[in-house]
Design goal:
single chain, about 110 residues, mainly alpha
Length: about 110
């Protein structure tokens, strides 16, 4: 392998590591937002409840506020796992049955 191609491979590993770190950090933020979003929605409904007519009841904590963040977290985790597997793990090698002699042939 020439020096230029080794440098490109090394550069690709660095970019892969940076991208995986960024995706991991985004995943942590999305995981935290799963729990923060319902609280933020409840606080905003409580604070601005006077602007809404009293015919509608204001719900407490709504899990619907957390669903978009949950979907984003799962998708980021899936992309992160796929990239980690693709960049840093060796592919499984398929061995054919021809390479291994059968017991009848060995005798």
């Amino acid at each position: 392998m020439s020096g230029r191609s080794r440098a490109l491979v090394s550069l690709g590993v660095w970019y892969g590591a940076i991208a995986l770190g960024y995706l991991f950090a985004q995943g942590i933020l999305r995981f935290v937002n799963i729990f923060v979003s319902p609280v933020a929605g409840w606080l905003s409904r409580k604070q601005y409840g006077g602007l809404v007519p009293r015919t509608t009841s204001l719900p407490g904590f709504s899990l619907q506020d957390a669903l978009p963040e949950l979907v984003r977290f799962v998708l980021l985790l899936l992309v992160w796992c796929v990239l980690l597997r693709w960049l840093y793990f060796e592919p499984l090698k398929n061995e054919t049955s021809e390479a291994m002699p059968s017991p009848e042939q060995a005798a």
